[in-house]
Known about the structure:
Elements: E1 5-7, H1 26-31, H2 33-50, E2 60-61, E3 67-70, H3 79-93, H4 97-102, H5 105-108, E4 116-122, H6 123-126, E5 128-130, E6 136-139, E7 142-145, E8 148-159, E9 185-193, E10 199-207
Parallel strand pairs: 2-9
Antiparallel strand pairs: 1-3, 3-8, 4-8, 5-6, 6-9, 7-8, 9-10
Amino acid sequence: xxxxxxxxxxxxxxxxxxxxxxxxxxxxxxxxxxxxxxxxxxxxxxxxxxxxxxxxxxxxxxxxxxxxxxxxxxxxxxxxxxxxxxxxxxxxxxxxxxxxxxxxxxxxxxxxxxxxxxxxxxxxxxxxxxxxxxxxxxxxxxxxxxxxxxxxxxxxxxxxxxxxxxxxxxxxxxxxxxxxxxxxxxxxxxxxxxxxxxxxxxxxxxxx
Length: 208
């Protein structure tokens, strides 16, 4: 989002940390956008093969596109998060493009089974998190870059305790069934420090 922001630093990057936030040719960045997305997908698939979440947390996904490095609070949800949401919808629809346009939930007035709220959260607000080994690590607020420091932001989604579904999932007949909306978690890569003061990029759990 303009100067001093990086979308989804959780992935492995080409080169070293010093490359983050460096000056890049704008035209080269635009022409390589498709290659960047392809690289992102390949990285996510690689991580899925070599890293496995701890068995104690079965509600956690392996990764999520919900992290950004920025000098200021992002104004919109992360781009890759929006792309994933749209792709998941298209895959679930399994229809032609013509039918998909008329099947857009916004057009049909569909509602989510559970009401939720999403917002950007800083590392200063999170302070600590649980990594993939189950250990509690400190989430570092800032990441050093050549021209200064950027803050880590996490796009978290939680059940809305004040919404209509606070007493059960929407669409469930309460006369016969009990239901509950529950916040799940995903693993994202963030700059953290363990109890031995070792700083590094680790997968941590955030609310999704």
